[in-house]
Structures are given as structure tokens and as C-alpha cells.
Here is the input.
Amino acid sequence: MLRSLRTALLASFAVVSLVPVAPIQAQTAPRQVQTADDPWLYKGSDLVHDEQWKFGRLSNGLRYAVRKNGVPPGQVAVRVRIDAGSLMEKDSERGFAHLLEHLSFRGSVHVPDGESKRIWQRLGVTFGSDSNASTTFTQTVYKLDLPMATPTGLDESMKILAGMMSGPIINAASLNAERPVVMAEGREQPGPQKRMQDQMLELMFAGQPLADREPIGTPETLTAATPESVQAFHQRWYRPERATVIISGDVDPALLEAMVVKHFTAWKGVGPAPANPDFGKPDKDHAIAASLVEPALQPVAMMAIVRPWTVFSDTVIFNQKRMVDLVAIRIINRRLESRARSGGPFIAAGADLSDIARSANITTVQVLPSGDDWEGSLREVRGMIADAAASPPTQAEIDRELAEISASMQQRINTAPVEAGAKLADDLVEAVDINETVTTPQASYDILKQAIAAKMFTPATVQAASKRVFEGTAVRALVNTRTPDPQAVTKVTAALQANVTGVGKRKAIGNVSIDQLPKLGAPATVVSREPLLQGTDITKVVLSNGVRLLMRQDPSETGKVYVNVRFGRGLNAVPGDRPTPLWAGETALMASGIGKLGQEELDALTGNRQIGLGFDVSDDSFSFIGQTNKADLADQLRLFATKLAHPTWDPNPVLRAKAAMLSGYAGLSASPDGVLGRDLERLSRSGDQRFGLPSREVIEATTPASFRQFWEPLLATGPIEVEVFGDMDAEATLKAVAATFGALKPRPAVAAPATPVKFPAHVATPVVRTHTGKSDQAAAAIAWPTGGGTAGITESRRLDLLAAIFRDRLIDQLRSQAGVSYSPNVASQWPLGMANGGKLIALGMVPPDKTEFFFKLSRDIAADLVAKPIDADELERAVAPLKQQILRASSGNMFWMRLVAGGSYDPAIVRGVETLAQDYSKVNPADIQALAVKYLRPDADWTMVVVPEKAEK
Here is the structure.
């Protein structure tokens, strides 16, 4: 199915208000089904071509697509797709596709081992985000986002990529070096989740290769791999006729095409071309139920209805029929979500319709019960699904879905000029992988409007779809329980076959209007209005009630307006010496309601509009966050302002957040990274209760009453700074802010001092925590205290460089050379909103017997950075990617909004904008050494390990 259509159709389950469907306007002319081979993407399709893409085919069979795109300016996104994934592997080759991906990045005919990373770093590429690769069941994709691409840099990069495809270095040295890295990647997968995934694939896709072909492979086959066997896999599948090169960037497409021709034409396949393997069809005779016992995971019931693969031709009618199916799914999901919100027997439940790995079309249903009663939860969910098949939806329900889908598609049309080139390239890669196409946003919308005009969305057709999507070759279910149950499989089988007629419940939401919100006061007047900083087009306004506004009218991101309302003092207003309901705020605060509107009504009000209702907690403020557009901005602001003035305290979101946290809490102990996520931030701040995740006892003690008691005064006190950046009208924005936030009563300031953050004292031996997961997994962390506050902005940025240099060395030595850890990391954390509490921290997932090796290596790197200056090339390879990250981000309004957040109150933030460029560029090796001397002190470091609770026997 056309990817843009499916994205819109399944993008959130928020309820939308009933509005008339837009009348059919000028539409893209229909096409005949293409029978010609080229343009190759559209063979067999009658969809409108996206003429921005230029498609071609080399004489050796390699296909390519190139296009001009300037988002962000100067960047070129390159994707090289090989039509070979784990489903192409023989039994003895499991994991080879992924292993080959790793080897290709190490070195090739054009660059020695490890040099491609260094070349790309000098060109501003960040390893891991700008240069990466992925292996799936059906493809291997190599990704390069080249910032500020010059002809020379692009030419060198295309040469490297071509060599990686045609001639990776596959010898004993490279294989023995990279094999441990791949094994580490597999070892670091969390055990309970891996076991559940394995059993799910085995059950859902029984009788097909997909059942046991995870890309990571097996330790046995990876250990047995030889240069000859890996080379044989490469020769068989890495061939030009199986390759697609996709480039989207800020370069003339003719030059991009010439680069493909220059560097990929000489590539020739070795030996006869292999036939595609048979991916099989679902096996109707396999067992229909399975269970597992993973106490660390949430109890869950998963149901799947499996059908043969269906995507053979991406046509208009195929998409329209699938759209009816997906609308049926959306209506069911909306009903399930409404039931969960109102205190139903499940925390969450939802269905999805997907095409999987060219192997099956599948409807999946996942149910997270409240507690351990998966049988009752699954029964109610099945009853609601059965009700959808037995009784038609109302036209109002259908129209609400269509209104939301239409709004999403119209917004995509509006924002198409600022769609990132990397996103366009990734979309095309995925379309190629599953026999889909891409078209224009307008053509996507036309397909929907034509289906509406043809009356394809009626209660009868959607009811038929509600029945059809839950029928198939086989129905299967998998249940996870916390405790063993010998009758579990029998119970699952019975649950699938139980009569659920009459169990389903429906809840209707009437029309909801913004005028149902409580009235606010009289608008404020403007006390002052001035540029915040010359050259940035950011204006600072102070209103008569004390509210401050930072706004930037900038239409460069067409159709996008970003809103960030900072209020209060954030973590600085929260005590650190005792637990609080802080943990539930991000999940439950906005969901608890505004005025008389609960979550259901808010969804109905905002679903078909561009209004966001996000909430966040930072060091020095709480924030309401939303992305909107010019037409919806005033209502976006009104909702946020009314939340401060007239909050509602529906208990259900708090109870649901509590149930969800408790349901998954055991999983936090089941792996080293789970324990780190729970405990590291609190331990590295001397037990400060504001950081890390709360204990089970704290969660259990949280009630709707204690939640309100904690959050109500925080909503009512402290300064307000409203940021509005983007494609809006400045005068209309000022008027809307004055009428909403300006209409609030002046807010009292809070004089209480912030609780300081204390870094723990140096420890002679690491702090030890244990996990209940795999016995071959451990984690190690070492941290050094730094600082905090806006007075140290320049130092914080230079610490980012020190961390980048440290990280690059750690990756080279711990991963590439030692093969001990797959993804070690080093980061500098400098809280601008707090006076202290910063740290430079190194983390690594390692085998339990390698934690001391990690600490020694980290301390050796730190000591070397202290002892002598780095060389100029190493500094440049750290500076160039950071500079390019800033340059690319600076083309967007979110960058500027984040950069000046808090600047209407703190002049140091504004001064930090002025020094941004020089803080990163005017740094020399001596500066880096001085930072290392100041902070990487061996008598100040703090260490922690997470080791298995039970050692391997």
C-alpha cells in the first residue's frame, strides 16, 4: 500500500470532531496501469508519478532514483539498498547478511579498515546517526547523510559506498575483528523480550522461513563463519541487479545521477544470479496457541490473523480498498482506547493491519491487562471486535476518522516543501522493499477524496471490512504470564474459541466545541516589545500581567508553528529529599482534563486539527508543547492557558499511569540497561528523589488525590514564558497570546531556594546493582562531576567536544578493537537550568568479566587526554560533525526555540546564542587538554556496575 496513505490512516487513534468532508476539488488526472519496465518503480501501478524523482537503470541492472531537496540546506542523503536480508540465508548462514553489513563498513577496496569513518567525520558526518546501516528480513540498507556536501566530498563518499558494495574486505583479520562486535550486539539484546519475540515469530509465521530467521543470527553460525563462506554469501546476493541507489539532496539531480553512473557502472555480479527464495505461505494446520512465562515482562495477550502476502501491484483501487480496512481498524482502536481510559479491564489494547517481510498480510491485536486477568481482558477486546463485525458503525464515527485522515493529508500537502530529504529517501527505500510506490501528497489526498466520492466509506462497507480484517488462513494467540500455568495453552485456545457475542460496548461522544472551555479574563496589554537578539528575527514581548512572549515569524517551514509554554520552576520547585508524584506528570497531567473537557472530549476537539497537547518537565520549568499551524494557533494557545487556569482532575489517567508502571516494573530489573534506566540518574546525584524512576512502593502509594495535591500548586505558580516560532502572523500571534495567557491573573513568584544537586563522592569500588536477566550481560558506568548553569554555557559546549573525542576513542578501542561492547557511549550532561549537577559519563554494555576492563580502558583514555594535547586531525573529526549538526538544525525553528528558551528571563541565554559558533570552532588542542585536566580527575570519578543476580553455572 502507498506508504503516505497508510501513515495518515494509522497515525494516532485520537478522536476527531464530526465535520463535513471537503468537497472534491481539482484532482490529479488518473493514469493507466504502467506496463513498461521504466520508470521502474511504477511498473504495474496506476498511481501518479512523483515527478521530483528521476529514475534510471544502469547497464549492469542497478536501479537508481535521484531528486533535488534542500532540507536541510547543503545536505545529501544517500541510501544504498541491497535486496538481501536474513530470509536469503541458508541454515548455515544465519546472521551472515547482518555480519556482511558490519564488514562492509569496516573497509573495502577503496579504504583500509576503519578509515571510512574518519573520512566521513572530517566531512562533518556523525558516526551512528549520519552514517549507519540496517539489516532486516528482506533487505540491507546503507545510509549516509552528508552535510554541506561539496562535489569533492560527495565524489569521495560515492566512491567509498560503491566499494563497500562491490568489494568489502572479507579476510580472516577483518572477520575476527568484527565477529565479536556482532556477537556483542546479539548478547546485549534483553533476554525476556528476545524470548518473547522468538516465540511470537515461531507461532505467528509457522511454516514459513520468517519463523526462525531473525537478522542477528545465532552464535553457532556466526562462530562457524569463515572468510570463504561470507564471501560466498556476498557474491551470491551483492549484485548490481539487486541494488538500488537512492539520493535526495541539495545538489543538481544531474550531478547526482552522474555520480551513480561514475561509481557504480563498473560493478559486475560474480557467477549466476540466484532466484529469490520462496517465502512460503501461512500454515493453517499449525497449533493456534502458545504461552510463555516471563515474570519480567508485562502480562500480555497477542492475537494474530494471518493471510498470504497481498502486495503485488500498488494501484489506486488496491489502496482505496485497504483504506476502508484501515478505517475499520481505527474505529475499533478508538473504542478500545475509550474503554481503557474509562477504567476498563485492560491498560491498553489495539489492532494493526500490516504487510510483513513479503511473507504475510497480518492483523494483530495486543492486549495489556490491568493486573493478571488476561482472559477477561482478551474476552472483552474480542467482544468489542465481534461487535464491530456484527453491527455497523455510525456514519458519524466514519466521518470522524475521515476528517482526521483528511486533516493529516492536508497538513502533509502544506508541509511538503519542507519535508527532509533523508525522510524522502527512507520512504522510497521502504516502498521498494515491499512492492509499493511513492506519489505526491496531493495525489495521495486525491485517492482518498475519490474513494469518499465513490461512497466507499459507508456503515455497510466499513462493517464488512471490520469482519474481513479478522478473517484469514489462521488465527493464533500468544500469552505471557508472570507465573507458570500448566493449562495456559488450553486456556488460550479456549479464549480464542469462546463466544463473545454481546460483550462489546460502545461509547458515543457528541460534538465538542472550543467554546465549551471556561472563559478567561480580559486580555493583557503590551508593556514592552523589542528584538531579543539582532539578526535572529526573535521578538521579546512583556505583557501587563507579567507573561513574557518570545516569537519568531518565519515561513521557511511551511505550515508549521511550534509552541512551547514554559511555566514554574521545573525540578527546581520539587523537593529532592522525598518522593513525590512527579513521575506521573508526563503521562497523566494533560490527560486529566481541561475545564469540563476530559481526554475523550479533547481528542474529539483536536483530532482533525493540528493541535498538540504535550507536557514535559525540565530542570528549570514545566512545559506545554504543541505543533500547530496558523489557523489553529489561537485555539492551541487557549487550551494551554485554560489548563493553567482551570485544570480538571479526572482520576482515571492517574490510575492508568499507575497500572502501566506497575505492570512493567519487573522488567526494569531484567536487564542491565533496565536497571541503569531506573537507578543511574538517582545514584549519580546522591539519591536525589527528583531523578530516576520511583520505587514500586512510591508508585503504589500515588493516588489521584496525592497527584492533584502535588501538581495543582505547581500549575498555579511561577513565571510564564510563551514561545511561538514558525509560519504564523506575528501580530495575530501577539493578539492571541494577550487574549489567552495575558488573560490569566498575575502569578505569584516562589522565593524558596532550589534544592542543590550533589554529585556522589569518589568510590574505591563501583556501586553494585544486580539484574535478573541473562547471565552474560553486565553494564558499567564511570562519571566525573562537571558543573551547571547558564554562566557556563561556553564551557558546557566545549565539554561536548571533549565527550565526542572520548566517545570516538572508546568506540574504537572497546568496540572495534576489543569487540567487547556493541554501543558504548560518552556524553556530557550540563544542566543549564540548575547551578550544578553536571557530569561527563561513559557507559558500556559488557560481559560481566569485562567490567574492570571497561573501567581501566576509560581511565586510560581520560589519563591520556589529561597528559597530552590531542592532534589537530582528531580535534577536527570531533568539531566538524558538531558544527554540521548545528548548521543543519539552524535551518529549523525548533533549533532557535530551544536555544533561547528561558531567554526572556535570563540574559546569559541570549549571550550564549551570540557565542555559539565560536564556542565550538575557536577551540584548540590545549583547550581540550585544559578541560580534561580540570574535570577528568581520578580522585573524583564515580563508578557503577550492573551484574547478573545469578552467575552462570
About this structure: The first strand starts at residue 54 and ends at 57.
